[in-house]
Amino acid sequence: MNGGAPVPEQRSVSGEMPEQPPPPAAETDRTDRSHRAGTPPAGAPGAGPQGSAMRYAVLGPVRAWRGGDRLAPGTPQQQALLAVLLLREGRTATAPELIDALWGEEPPSQALPAIRTYASRLRKIIDPGDLTSVSGGYALAVRPGALDLTVAQELAAEAEKAAGSGDLGQARGLLSKALGLWDGEALAGVPGPHGRTQRTRLEEWRLQLQENLLEMDLEQGCHTEAVSELTALTAAHPLREHLRELLMLALYRSGRQAEALAVYADTRRLLAEELGVDPRAGLRELQSRILAADPALAEPEAPAEQPASAPVRPAQLPATVPDFTGRTAFVAELGDALGSVGGRVMAVSAVAGIGGVGKTTLAVHVAHAARPAFPDGQLYVDLQGTDGSAADPETVLGSFLRALGTPESAVPTGLDERAALYRSTLDGRRVLVLLDNARDAAQIRPLLPGAGGCAALITSRVRMVDLAGAHLVDLDVMSPEEALQLFTRIVGAERVGAEREAALDVVAACGFLPLAIRIAASRLASRRTWTVSVLAAKLADERRRLDELQAGDLAVKATFELGYGQLEPAQARAFRLLGLADGPDISLDAAAALLDLDADATEDLLESLVDTSLLESAAPGRYRYHDLVRLYARACAERDEGPDRAAALSRLLDFYLATAAGVYALERPGDQLHAHLAPTEAAGLAFTDRTAAWDWLFREASCLLACVRQHAGGATLRRAVDLLFAAKDLAESGADARQYEQVAAVALAAAEEREDLLAQARARTILAHSYRLTGKFAQADEEADHGMRLSAAAGDPVAGGYASNIRGIAAIYRNQHPEAREYLGRAIEEFRADANRPGEASALSNLSRVLLESGESAEAVALAERALAIYNEVGLTWRLANGMYALGLALAASGRHEEAVDQLSGALPVFQENRQPLWEGMTLFRMAEIALTTGEPAKAATLAEQALAQLRRIGGDWRRGNVLTLLGKALFALGQQGRARACWTEALGVYERLSRPEAADVRGLLAHAPS
Fold it and tell me: Rounded CA gap, 841 and 823, in Å?
């Protein structure tokens, strides 16, 4: 099924129900257990409004419903009779067959009367007439779709059809739905030989479905997600070699080659000890291919047969302009090169880097024409190479990988790792990559596909002579004939035909620059009362100015002047002021604040600017400038705006600060931060819905952080720092953590330059917060120490409490418990003095950790309970989960494991729903610790794998080392010694690199583990 994957036999997706019983299958997290309280699961018999019809379930305990009401199926023997009849699918079961099914070879003397008694009781439960007596036996009528087993069989059959047609996405969904019908072990608690046989048969079928689903996961690149489930299944079925193969492949594709090879070593040892045999050929071959780094193993086949719904065949090209004109020679040259040279890099750039010459338009047109040659997709990115915030190749690679179907959790950190996975993902595919507006060759090298059959089309203002193997094309302005043709297509042949000479004057005044021609023609097209001669006369002065300019961007600036000069005063003001704001784009609400207008008036102005091609509509309610237009707009603002320039930017800063402060307050009722923020004159958005507020914060992350960077200095410094403080949740999300840390460093440097003690205190506290989240505890402690001292000098309760709390946390992780107790005690005092109840609860939770380390378990539990009570009292949202997490740790250390798991299990979905990958990963890690302590190594390994997947992108290497150490212990307990050693070896490398004391413990584990 998957190219290069070690699936030796081609089995049907729906699986076969075997006759020989295998070991029982383990439950997976794919199963929806919401129906355990008695309501049938969605999609199962009994789900939905079906009147009072009877419905049954055998994939779990034997159950029956009439409509939505759960019925009591009776004693175990009575359930056994019901199960026999249900599995006969309406066929008659004779009395001897029933007796044999319930009791086997040693039935009781009154077996037949007992059968009749059970049947009589069943008739009182189910619909009249459904259970009939036939020739001394019985038959049960079951309506189509009324038994969960038949529904599962139908779903599995549909999945097989979907997979056969290449629709793996649909097949995966159907198999997941089928597996979701299980509620634990099939026929659970049903006695008798028939129950045992059928239970084994159904569990084997379930395991086959799980294997097939995991194969599909690997074929679609979901290898990281598959590791945790395969770890659990191999622990439950250690001798099932096919599961071991899938686990090896999943680990290898997740970049964990040593663990993949360790799985083989563990399997070979286990098979020799238990069965006296060697691994089968498929497993041996896979080991050899991993050792040889077989490129075919890196990723599944090119997604030529994937369904359109699966995000593995990107089509990201911007729309080509309908009036594309001329450039015939360039189109032919580039088209021939794209069609004939697979994997060749081509660069489209303008002479002297002139903007507006049509590089992007040409590249997009050529790319669309070449789409048939690249059936596996087209990628596009604007690299923003012409301004000071050029796109980071690492960020671009993350976007490309996700577009190619790589799950978020499987996207690695680091430029080199992402580039390697990107090239592996493209191997064997035919994908066109359009890299628009590149800064230089260094920016694009990591973005180039490494495989033949792919191609990269690049636009840039510079000639990339240092890009090896590139096909260079210098794009000049249009010829007079092409320029006139473009002008005619936009304005209309009738108007131009009547004034051909005037039209030639217009395009000449535009310098034959495509962007300038488009702007001028669009203005004329939107003004039906103008003639071409009127436009030519208006451009006469501009023509002279263009002649006086030398070359390059000045020519573009003059071209923009043509459109700008025709704007109404309100449009021109909006055009100038919007160009002042940093950030990739701007929302309608932010623009309204900047312009000091209401949303409706702002939208009318912005849409009118879109009509003039001076502004782009990036998405509904969001707008952006072309980079050159933004520079021109700023030049206009500097020339034509007075005090309103600073006032506009101040209003924008106020908008972001007021809105972010509102989101912060909504998330943290009882927190006093809002009372200590710098005052704002402009209002922000007001949210009552937490989800909407949360969405706004993350949607505006890039613009908000750009605003902080832009205003980190002068009179706006304190507001900029406060905005960063109010948006601190961005640091915990993972997606924006790196950018947040960088901006915090900029804010600190500006505060130091201005010698503003309060701003320095808060900036250092913010930076310490960011360092703590990424596991840089020494740096966090250093910054927090400065923050504490500066806050005392400035009399700032905000930085004082939070800096002390961070120092306490850092001390805990550095095993400095007396110091931690001191810092956290101070934090509690600071928070109480400020009436900051959530802050107090946080410090209490952390102090409970210190008491745990000191052996004061009862006191630790009491503190954690006090913290949780505060969170409940103030009505906190997801922060309540932090209290549950802390209490779970205290309970676990006190040996109250069941209560601890209850707390952690309650916190986990809250973290998941609120986009907190760090806390989600840490909660899974703590649950894994408890599982290992309570003798459940398989469960511990599964949870540790899930934690590892979450903490790959946030939390730092130290936390990842902790999870690897725990995972190794769980695997060792499961007898997977080779893979355990691989985990410990990787963890040891992390600890040694960080000079952590845990390295000694891991060396001890490795020393006592068989090699």
Answer: 15
- Residue 597 one-letter amino acid: L
Q: What sign does the dihedral 20-23-46-309 (CA atoms) show?
A: negative
Is 737 in contact with 766 (CB distance < 8 Å)? no
Cα distances (Å, whole numbers) of residue 503 to 63, 326, 331, 500, 529:
82, 17, 26, 5, 16
Percentage of the chain surpassing pLDDT 70? Answer: 87
Q: What is the DSSP string of 574-605?
A: HHHHHTT--SS-EEHHHHHHHHT--HHHHHHH
Name which of 224-233, 345-354, 706-715, 730-739 the model is least confident about.
345-354
Give CA–CA dist 150/307, Å, rounded: 27
Residue 41, pLDDT above cutoff 90:
no
Continuous H helices in 668-796: 673-676, 690-699, 701-711, 717-726, 729-732, 737-754, 757-773, 777-794
335 vs 714, higher pLDDT: 714
Map residue 1011 onto helix, strand or coil.
coil
Give all strands (DSSP E) within 631-684, no chain letters. none
With beta carbons less than 8 A apart as the criterion, state whether 994 and 957 touch: yes
Higher pLDDT, 630 or 238: 238
pTM of the model: 0.61
Type of residue numbered 296: A
Mean pLDDT on 931-942: 94
Cα 823 to Cα 847: distance, rounded to the nearest angstrom: 9
List, edge to edge, every strand of the sheet that includes 54-57.
54-57, 63-66, 69-71
Q: State mean pLDDT over 749-773.
A: 93
Q: Are 580 and 647 in contact (CB under 8 A)?
A: no
Q: In what order do the strands lie in the sheet with 622-624?
A: 586-587, 622-624, 616-619
Q: Contact 457/492 with Cβ under 8 angstroms?
A: no
Comparing CA positions, the residue from 202, 211, 198 lying closest to residue 181 is 202
| CA dist., res. 61 & res. 378, Å (int) | 50
DSSP character for 312? T
User: Which pLDDT value is given to residue 787?
Assistant: 94
Are residues 363 and 514 in contact, defined by beta-carbon separation less than 8 angstroms? no
Cβ within 8 Å of residue 176, ≥6 positions away: 30, 213
What are the DSSP calls for 787-853, one per residue? Answer: HHHHHHHHT-HHHHHHHHHHHHHHHHHTT-HHHHHHHHHHHHHHHHHTT-HHHHHHHHHHHHHHHHH
CA 673, 678, 683, 684 torsion: positive or negative?
negative
- Poorest-confidence range of 302-311, 431-440, 983-992? 302-311
- Residue 727 sits at φ, ψ, to 5 deg, of -100, 25
Find where tokens 């400020």 sit. 834
